[in-house]
Each structure stands twice: as C-alpha cells, then as structure tokens.
Write a structure and sequence with these properties.
Chain lengths: 101, 161, 110, 159
C-alpha cells in the first residue's frame, strides 16, 4: 500500500511541474500567483501522503497544515499588494493620491 | 463633494467583507496552532522559531485583512518591544542559570537541582522554556520588521504602501 | 477490505480532479478562466484525497491515536475548504481592480 | 459567556492537535487557550450578545454542507468535461446578481459557495450586488435559478 501512495505522490509531483510551467511562462503576474497557489494546495496533499509513506503521519500532518496556512497568507498578501497598487505592469504605478478612479 | 465621493469609493475598494469575515474566523486557530508548535517542539517538528513565525503570520494576516490600526489595538508597539526583550531574557536567563548551577551554558540537565523532577524531565522543561523565549522573540521581531516595511518606517497605516 | 477500496477510489478521484485542474491551468485562454480551473479543481481534489487518506487511516482499527490523526486530516481538509475560495476571490478581485480585460468568445472568432 | 464558548472550542482543537493526555500538556493547553481567548475573542464571535439562534443555525449549516458538496462535485465534472473537450466550448462573461441576503455571515457563506461551485467566481460585492464571473452559459443559468440563495437564506432565516 505504501508503494501505491508513493506512485500517487510521484504523479502529483509531475502535476506540480506542469503547473510550474504556467508559473514560469504565465503572461501576467496574476497567472503566476494562481500557479503558485495551486502548487501549494498540491504540496499540502503530497505532504499528507508522505506521512503515510514514512508511517509518521503525526509529524507530517503538522508540516502540512503549516504549509496550507502559509500558502493562504501568501496568496492574500500578493492579492492585496496588487489591489492597492491598481496595476499589474511594473513601473506603472498609480498612487492612491492621484488614482482612485 | 466630488472628493468625498471619490474617497468613499476608495475606502470601499479596500474593504473586503469576504476576506475580513474568513480571516476573523481563522485567526484564533492559527494563533492556537502557533502556540501548539511552540509547546510541542520537543516531540514533533517545529519549535520556537517555527511557532513564532506562525504566530507572527497570524498578526500579519490581521494587518492584511483589516489594517495596521486594528492590529495595534491588540498588540501595540510597546507590548511588542517588551515581548521581544522578554524572550531574550528568558533564553539567556535559563542559560545563565545553568552556568550558575555549575554546568555549561544551556546544559539543562543540571536544572534538576532546583526543579522537582529528574534529569530527563528537567532537560525537557529547560528546552520548553528556551523555546518559549525564542518563540516570543521571533514573533515580536517578525511583526516589527513587517510593520516597518509595510508602513515605510512610519508604523502608521499600511494602506499607504 | 471494503474500506480500503473506498479510500483508494476517493484518492483516485481526487487525483483525477487535480489532473483536470492542472490541464485547465495550462489550456485556458486568460487569467479569469484559469482561475476557474485552478481554484476549484484543486479544492475538490484536495478534499477527496484527504478524505480518502483519513478513511484509509482508520482501517487498522479504531484506536484513539488513529481517530485523532483522521480528525487532523479532516481539519486540514476543512481549512482548505474555507481558505481556498477566499484566496481565489482575493486574486480575482485584484485582477478586476487592476482592470485586466476578461477574455471573451467574440474576440477570438474575428 | 462568550469567553467560555471561545475557550471551549479552542481547547477542543488543542486536544485534537496535541494528542497527549498527561497533566503537563493539558495544562499547557489551558494556558495557550486562555492566551488566545484573551487576545482575539472578539474576532471569533463579534456580536455582543449570544442568542440560541446560533445553535439552530449551525445545525442547518451542517445540513447544508452535503448538498453543497454534491453540487460542487456535479459542476466540477461539468468543468472537467469543458477542460477535456478539444474545442473548449467556453463563453466567459461577468454577470450581475442581485441578492436578497442581508447579514454579513450569510453574504460571505453565499459568496464562498458561489466561488466553490466551479464555473462561477464571486469577483466583488457592491451594495448587495454580486459580480460573478461565469465560465459558460449553463453555470450562469444554474446560478440565476437561485436555488443556492434560497438554501443559504433558509440557514440564516432570512426571507
């Protein structure tokens, strides 16, 4: 059964690589943020699977939850950054004083 | 009149009811999880540094969902500084206590003289104490670094930058 | 035995949704539509996989430790269930505020 | 009263995560939960006084979750078929949806339900109007039928 989990985990690592393509090639920066967020969700599940592979679920589940929390906070932070900046192009920055359109 | 309308629109832009409500519901659990990581550092992965980071992350999430003013109601700069130095005092205090009792710095086994426990247990208690100190310091330093960067050194309102 | 079968079925179903989420992330034309694939396919995939793991963990009998570990897995699933749509919404709103134009069908046909 | 409820909920979680039942760890849990309760009790429960409605509401909410899961699976299969079909017959557009919900919690529940159901994302809430980005006509029509909104309104007893 552990072997089976190992195959699933490896398969999901391949999926992470595919999502990483979007992260590297995404035309806008928001695409990259989505890709990283999706990779984070997959990593949470991979960590839980690793707990079963190594028979140390209690340990790996703690890491898994911490990863999920930090992934959530990172996504919210990136979203808030672009929301208050109001532009996704580098260099073109509308400050709040003159912006607010 | 026109300015007032513009201002209210701007405020609404940043107000986000969904993020606020969800963060409100999960921040206490994140804080509890950070304390759990600190307290169980000697059994499971984690410890002072990691737990402190998670605690700091909960405060950062509070800043992201509300603003810096709301966070400072809960944790003012003064309390932050006090926590930062208290953590260092706990850490060095336990270390120096070991030296005073005649062992090396942070050699917890010697603490069995003053604690009602054998060497094994006093060692684990000593590690716990040190981790609590490290956790407080890491949390306070992370939060103050975040506040300084987010407000461009002013600690005023995070929306400005 | 039947518990293991159900658990494996759940995990495989979760993996299937992960696959469609990743394919959608690669294939869809613009940022909003990619968000549809990535945000929701991943949530359901993670939910099903974690539920399968929790079920598999219980097949060796109902000791206190096993139940606690299953509950932990379910708490992680619950956290993802609450947090993921919120993150998706946050990024979508960021896209709207940054005035990223949504892709529409007519534009592609002309 | 508020403090007690928050403390009990947090302590349940502590026991779940800790998994150790000796006196030392349980007392550490009491200290931690008291600290968190002291720091952020008014985050978790914001209303000033508690009414017994909360218990009814949470029971109805628990009944609502399986239906939501069923809907999520159905529409996820729909989106999966969209992804896998070669021509990708999608027709994304932003629709407006006027809601009748009032309270904050029901608005958020409905918004997250919309976001969780694949094919639709809540992009914004402005003055009781949802801006929803819909992936295809089918999911937009499903949303406009208003079944989900009725269910959410039923949970929080709003009409």
């Amino acid at each position: 059964m552990e072997n089976y989990f190992l195959y699933i985990a490896i398969f999901m690592c391949v999926l992470v690589l595919l999502a990483l393509y979007r992260g590297a090639a995404g035309p806008t920066v928001l695409d990259r943020i989505i890709a990283i967020s999706a990779i984070g969700t997959k990593t949470t599940v991979i960590l839980a699977l690793m707990g079963f592979i190594y028979r140390r679920s209690d340990m790996f589940l703690d890491i898994s939850l911490a990863y999920a929390i930090l992934n959530f906070i990172a996504t919210i932070a990136a979203a808030k950054f672009f929301r208050s900046r109001k532009s996704i192009n580098p260099g073109e920055r509308c400050s709040i004083d003159e912006g607010g359109k | 009149m026109h300015d007032a309308a513009k201002e209210s629109k701007m405020i609404r832009d940043f107000e986000n009811i969904i993020i606020k409500t969800v963060c409100r519901a999960i921040i206490p659990f994140i804080q509890l999880y950070g304390l759990y990581v600190i307290a169980h550092g000697h059994y499971s992965p984690g410890g002072g540094f990691q737990g402190g980071c998670i605690l700091a992350a909960s405060f950062i999430l509070m800043v992201l969902a509300y603003d810096i003013k709301e966070m400072k109601k809960r944790m003012s700069e003064k309390i932050n500084t006090i926590l930062c130095s208290t953590g260092v005092i706990i850490y060095t205090g336990i270390g120096l206590l070991c030296v005073i009792l005649g062992a090396n710095f942070l050699d917890y086994g010697i603490l069995e003289i003053i604690l009602p426990a054998d060497a094994e247990h006093s060692r684990s208690l000593g590690i716990l104490g040190v981790e609590i100190g490290v956790g407080f310091t890491v949390m306070a330093v992370m939060v103050s670094i975040f506040l300084n960067i987010a407000s461009a050194g002013e600690h005023e309102d995070g929306e400005q930058g | 035995m039947i518990v293991i079968t159900i658990a494996v079925a759940l995990i495989v179903a979760g993996t299937f949704f992960f696959v469609t989420a990743t394919l959608g992330l690669l294939r869809f034309p613009d940022f909003y539509t990619r968000m549809h694939a990535a945000g929701k396919g991943d949530t359901l995939g993670a939910l099903l996989s974690l539920a399968g793991l929790a079920l598999y963990n219980l097949n060796n009998g109902f000791s206190v430790e096993a139940i606690l570990i299953s509950m932990k897995i379910l708490i992680i699933a619950l956290f993802i269930f609450i947090a993921n749509p919120t993150a998706t919404h946050a990024i979508t709103k960021a896209g709207l505020v940054c005035s990223v134009k949504p892709w529409e069908k007519k534009e592609s046909s002309k | 009263m508020k403090y007690v409820i928050v403390f009990l909920v947090l302590y349940l979680h502590w026991i779940l995560w800790s998994g150790k039942f000796d006196v030392f760890h349980l007392s550490l849990g009491v200290i931690s939960c008291a600290l968190v309760t002291f720091m952020s009790h008014n985050l978790y429960i914001q209303s000033e006084k508690l009414s017994p409605r909360i218990i009814k509401e949470s029971f109805r909410f628990i009944k609502y979750v399986p239906w939501l899961l069923y809907q999520i699976i159905l529409s996820n299969i729909h989106v999966a078929s969209l992804v896998l079909s070669p021509g990708m017959p999608i027709d994304p557009k932003i629709i407006r949806y006027k809601t009748k919900l009032k309270s904050e919690l029901s608005l958020v529940t409905f918004a997250n339900s919309i976001t969780l159901t694949p094919g639709t994302i809540t992009a914004d809430i402005v003055d009781g109007e949802y801006y929803v980005h819909a992936l295809s006509k089918k999911v937009a029509d499903d949303l406009m039928a208003g079944e989900m909104e009725d269910k959410v309104a039923q949970i929080f007893e709003e009409d």
